[in-house]
Structure formats: C-alpha cells, structure tokens
Recover the amino acids of this structure.
C-alpha cells in the first residue's frame, strides 16, 4: 500500500525553523518525484517545493526560495523540507505528494493533479 506520512509540524515564532519529514515506505524514490504543497485557511493549495526522481533536481516557489530546502534520503525513503526564517504567511497545512510520472526530470508545482499520492498533512503555525 502506497502511503505518505508527514510529520514535524508545529507552532514556531517568526524567524524560527522547522523540518518537515515525509515518510514514503512503499515508494522507490528513484521512480517518483516528490513535492511539498501547502494550504492556508481560505486559500487554494499551492506548491512549495519539489524534487525529481532522477538526479534530485529541485524547484521552489518564489515565496520560499532561499528559506526552504528540500532533500531526500532514498535509502530511508524519506523526503525532508527544512524551513528557515519562517513568516506568519507560511502558516498552513503542509502536504507531501508523490508522482507516477516516468520522466526522471519531472518536478513541477504548477498543477497538483500531476501528483497521484498524498499524505494527510501536517500543520505549521508561525505566530508570536
């Protein structure tokens, strides 16, 4: 059974850091691009970062570029999102998603329909 399980969310003050984890025990990360999306209350879900299945090329939304870093540990079947310099605007439920797209360079945040599997989400709240 292919499942994604996020963890690591919580309450943090502005300027603080969190590291989100995405466990993907049923996946071979060499065959699945992985992305992080987020959804704030009353807003549409938006892509945050993705990492390709091939060489691990990654992409970031402009709103998080320079502050967030995506990485993976293929042996542990884990994907991480290191979030630094957090802002109140980063408050959202963060979701991990995996794609079945065969292209090993695939890594996109444009359409969440490109991703076939989703975790249950983890809440990140940035507040003083």
């Amino acid at each position: 059974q292919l499942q994604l399980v996020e963890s690591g969310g919580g309450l943090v003050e502005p300027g603080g850091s969190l590291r989100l984890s995405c466990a993907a025990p049923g996946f071979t990360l060499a065959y699945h691009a992985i992305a992080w999306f987020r959804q704030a209350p009353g807003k549409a879900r938006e892509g945050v970062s993705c990492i390709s299945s091939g060489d691990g090329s990654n992409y970031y939304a402009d709103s998080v570029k320079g502050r967030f870093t995506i990485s993976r540990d293929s042996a542990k079947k884990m994907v991480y999102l290191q979030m630094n310099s957090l802002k109140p605007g980063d408050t959202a439920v963060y979701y991990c998603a995996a794609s079945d797209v065969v292209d090993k360079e695939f890594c996109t945040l444009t359409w969440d329909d490109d991703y076939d599997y989703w975790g249950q989400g983890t809440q990140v709240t940035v507040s003083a």
